[in-house]
């Protein structure tokens, strides 16, 4: 019942957020006439909510454990794990987008320098390079408009550099500003910037490779309790019944879960501190 209540509350919250966003979009982009708002409920709105996502796989796994242990506690824990897993997956996706954008900035610098050496003007070179690399993200329209119509290209690049992973665009904006003000070679500056960004990217990749062993160790230590339960089950014991149906087992489960969480957070913080350094 607790898991069902949590799921219903989450669905209601998601539907309310979608309702506000759609209503705001309709009000902003509607014509001068009356605004026709959609009904509060429809299958087209409900289907995305019940679409299978990776974080929802926690519920079938928790349901399996709950059936084996004959206890509703694993199902409640699985429902609690859904938003945590969703947050972790989104953070990993953001890191991947940041790395992809950083590599795209390097390609943008190289492509722009190549177009400049081919005889194009800086604005045209930036337009062709941006179309080939697709790295500017939500600021692409502003940067391309500034390049096409003689606007503030360095300012637009600095604004685009605020996106995660696109910090190298600030260096590109500096090269553009210096080339416009002093007449220095923009291609040479972009080549040096590309080399510096590529060296920094290689350094990050080397560090990630060196820390991969530490992350593997953390994952292995996190799976040790599950391995211990599996060994107890293989030896003929019933550890799940002890954990979920006895006061001592429930106390061990709570204390062990807290210690496991604290250990994972501590180890992850140590490794992330090494990445930042």
TrEMBL record:
It comes from the Bacteria. Pfam families: T2SSF (PF00482). This is Type II secretion system F family protein. It is a multi-pass membrane protein. Keywords: Cell membrane, Membrane, Transmembrane, Transmembrane helix. InterPro entries: T2SS_GspF_dom. Residues 113-231 form the Type II secretion system protein GspF domain. The chain crosses the membrane at residues 56-85, 211-236, 248-267. It is found in: Cell membrane. It comes from Streptomyces peucetius.
């Amino acid at each position: 019942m607790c898991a069902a209540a949590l799921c219903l509350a989450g669905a209601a919250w998601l539907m309310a957020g979608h309702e506000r966003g759609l209503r705001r979009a309709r009000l902003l982009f509607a014509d001068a006439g009356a605004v026709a708002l959609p009904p509060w409920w429809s299958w087209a709105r409900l289907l995305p909510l019940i679409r299978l996502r990776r974080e929802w796989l926690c519920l079938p796994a928790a349901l399996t454990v709950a059936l084996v242990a004959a206890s509703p506690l694993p199902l409640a824990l699985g429902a609690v794990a859904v938003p945590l897993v969703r947050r972790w997956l989104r953070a990993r996706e953001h890191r991947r987008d940041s790395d992809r954008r950083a590599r795209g900035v390097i390609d943008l610098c190289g492509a722009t320098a190549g177009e400049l050496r081919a005889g194009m003007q800086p604005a045209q070179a930036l337009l062709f390079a941006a179309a080939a690399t697709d790295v500017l993200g939500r600021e692409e329209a502003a940067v391309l408009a500034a390049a096409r119509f003689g606007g503030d290209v360095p300012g637009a690049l600095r604004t685009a550099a605020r996106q995660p992973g696109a910090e190298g665009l600030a260096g590109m904006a500096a090269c553009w500003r210096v080339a416009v003000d002093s007449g220095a070679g923009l291609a040479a500056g972009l080549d040096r910037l590309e080399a510096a960004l590529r060296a920094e990217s290689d350094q990050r990749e080397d560090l990630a490779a060196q820390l991969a062993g530490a992350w593997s160790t953390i994952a292995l230590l996190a799976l040790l309790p599950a391995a211990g339960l599996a060994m107890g089950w293989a030896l003929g014991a019933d550890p799940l019944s002890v954990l979920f149906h006895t006061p001592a087992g429930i106390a061990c489960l709570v204390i062990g879960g807290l210690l496991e969480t604290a250990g994972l957070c501590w180890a992850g913080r140590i490794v992330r501190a090494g990445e930042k350094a």
